Amino acid sequence: MRSGFGSVSRSSITGIVLIVTLCCFHVFALKSQLLTRHGVLVDSNAKDSVISYKTLYFNQKIDHFGFLEDGTFKQRYLVNDEHWHQKGGPILFYTGNEGDITWFCNNTGFMWDIAEELKAMLVFAEHRYYGESLPFGKDSYSDTKHLNYLSSEQALADFAVLIKELKRTVPGSQLSPVIAIGGSYGGMLSAWMRMKYPNVVVGALAASAPIWQFPDMAPCGDFYKIVTQDFAEGGLNCDVNIRKSWKAVDNVAATDSGLRWLSSEFSLCSPLKKTDVAGFKAWLQETWVNLAMVDYPYEANFLQPLPRWPVQVVCKYLGFDPYSVSDYQMLSAISEAVRVYYNYTGSAPCLNTSSTATGSLGYIGWYYQACTEMVMPMCTDGVQDMFEPQEWNFQAFSDECHALFGVRPRADWAGIFYGGLDIASHSNIVFSNGGLDPWSGGGVTRNISDSMVAIVIPDGAHHLDLRYNNEYDPHSVLSARAQEVEYFKLWIRQAKKQL
């Protein structure tokens, strides 16, 4: 942990992480307050795809809602106008997530695929406190006082101000309709952007956006039920054996020789001690969750390099009769399954139980957001899911947050500020969710009105529709993307009629 914060256990940190594991172009010079840098990214999941962009920086206010803090910081954003050659042409604006914006730019091929058809400018805006957009530079995470301006409300205001400045300073963009697009937390932001700033964006695509994963909006156990369902459908006995593996870990880890065996069998970078067992099981639990999230139909490297349908590949190791094997045999199979996630390429010399996903995500920042306004209850019962029973305990969660940051979460704030379940008065938002994605349990999966619509992708994992078209894509995601483009065209026509 960084200086200025307390410490909590690995299992406590994992609980916070799972709350949202949660998971490039030219623009005319925008006066002296904008700095530029060119860049190129290659998406390994898109054949022959090289995306070029210009990196720019905008002097953004640190605090949009108060007057004591009058400082600014450089917010990074990426722009491509390769296909934007008409006055008033649309702008597709990606509302940045909890991480480096270049990573999200590289994993949002849908926007690149449709830019030419829509003759659209693409803008990817980085979320404050992530990537290079640090309000207080190297001191941004030094203590809670400096983290005070990290919130979704401030981020949305950043996006609104940036869009207004782009339209004011980029020739030909003054009448351009802007559509917000995002996935996961970024999808939540895109939906909230349309709700809070309908004067700035004409519509929004909120992909895999769990805007209802908050207290009293969705059952706390739905997330892990969906993870379990994915593994149950991945292969015979797959979920059953994972459910039985927790007791096997306890049995084997009860002795020093068992701990040594586990460390060797799983090729762990650091040998397990008895005090590490809870953290080891938390690491395994998060591994299964991440596999469900990125269960894509083709090889991908969103969180880790993985094969096609990775859950099915994992389940090939776990198809045995759970009552016919010893604890050691059970865990040997679990270790092979885990390697699918951590060592598919075969290049990992050892497995690190303190790391489960990509370094492009800003975990400390997200811990803080989860400990303030993004309170997302989750629980397991070990019966309807394949995990050890763990109830949702808000007080314990609050205590963990206080130990880590010295803050207490506002459990009901998201419902109060963003409307909770009562969002029918809004318009022009498409909510897309994948049937394989555990976050769909907190997503909008039914139509709310004619212009607040839900698209469900039965074969889709976490925001599959935002990725590049791929030859292995199921028909359901191709259909979803086609529908989304049609809604974009409708919103663009509506906006032009109102001019």
From TrEMBL:
<keyword id="KW-0472">Membrane</keyword>
<dbReference type="GO" id="GO:0005764">
    <property type="term" value="C:lysosome"/>
</dbReference>
<dbReference type="InterPro" id="IPR008758">
    <property type="entry name" value="Peptidase_S28"/>
</dbReference>
<dbReference type="GO" id="GO:0008239">
    <property type="term" value="F:dipeptidyl-peptidase activity"/>
</dbReference>
<dbReference type="GO" id="GO:0060055">
    <property type="term" value="P:angiogenesis involved in wound healing"/>
</dbReference>
<keyword id="KW-0378">Hydrolase</keyword>
<keyword id="KW-0812">Transmembrane</keyword>
<keyword id="KW-0325">Glycoprotein</keyword>
<keyword id="KW-0121">Carboxypeptidase</keyword>
<keyword id="KW-0645">Protease</keyword>
<comment type="function">
    <text>Cleaves C-terminal amino acids linked to proline in peptides such as angiotensin II, III and des-Arg9-bradykinin. This cleavage occurs at acidic pH, but enzymatic activity is retained with some substrates at neutral pH.</text>
</comment>
<keyword id="KW-1015">Disulfide bond</keyword>
<keyword id="KW-0732">Signal</keyword>
<dbReference type="Pfam" id="PF05577">
    <property type="entry name" value="Peptidase_S28"/>
</dbReference>
<dbReference type="InterPro" id="IPR042269">
    <property type="entry name" value="Ser_carbopepase_S28_SKS"/>
</dbReference>
<dbReference type="InterPro" id="IPR029058">
    <property type="entry name" value="AB_hydrolase_fold"/>
</dbReference>
<feature type="transmembrane region" description="Helical">
    <location>
        <begin position="12"/>
        <end position="30"/>
    </location>
</feature>
<comment type="subunit">
    <text>Homodimer.</text>
</comment>
<dbReference type="GO" id="GO:0003085">
    <property type="term" value="P:negative regulation of systemic arterial blood pressure"/>
</dbReference>
<keyword id="KW-1133">Transmembrane helix</keyword>
<comment type="similarity">
    <text>Belongs to the peptidase S28 family.</text>
</comment>
<keyword id="KW-0865">Zymogen</keyword>
<dbReference type="GO" id="GO:0006508">
    <property type="term" value="P:proteolysis"/>
</dbReference>
<dbReference type="GO" id="GO:0004185">
    <property type="term" value="F:serine-type carboxypeptidase activity"/>
</dbReference>
<keyword id="KW-0458">Lysosome</keyword>
<dbReference type="GO" id="GO:0043535">
    <property type="term" value="P:regulation of blood vessel endothelial cell migration"/>
</dbReference>
<protein>
    <recommendedName>
        <fullName>Lysosomal Pro-X carboxypeptidase</fullName>
        <ecNumber>3.4.16.2</ecNumber>
    </recommendedName>
</protein>
